[in-house]
Automatic annotation (TrEMBL):
Keywords: Metal-binding
Residues annotated as binding a divalent metal cation: H50, H139, H143
GO molecular function: metal ion binding
Transmembrane segments: none
Name recorded for this polypeptide: Damage-inducible protein DinB
InterPro entries per UniProt: DinB, DinB/YfiT-like
Family classification: Belongs to the DinB family.
Organism for this UniProt entry: Hymenobacter nivis
Amino acid sequence: MHTASIQQNILAELDHELAVIRKVLERVPEDQLDYQPHPKSMKLGQLAAHIVNLLAFKQLFVEKDERDFLDANAPKPGPTPTTSAELLARFDQYSASLRQALHDSSDEKLGQNFQLRRGDQVLMNRPKGAALRIMGLNHSIHHRGQLTVYLRLLDIPVPGVYGPSADEPGSF
């Protein structure tokens, strides 16, 4: 019996989630990027950009051993995209880069620890595979869920995520 590796399992899950995230991002209306459902909520454009930028953050888990939020020289995401085309282009670029980093990795490397810090304060210390799953994929899934609520509030059809959507013809 052949058992899939950690790397293969993460790649398979990532491929599924990336396809769903892209479907949701394709629905983000360019003329509503400043929409904010509550004063404590991110604006629609910020939330969509955050979801995309998390892909680069996930890549850090795979390629690096640590990330310090107080490091002024640490890589930072580019400016918030102002068009749907920019948002989707960045998504495609970051997705391809993350997939390549995972493809170039191994179970052994994914078993090594990654530490997320704020100066001397350790925020997370986990194997890279677990960090990618917990702080990477789960984090993106959480924000994608928020984004679907924004779409619903704006009366924009919500695509199916793990099954049919009430907005897709013939779903129910």
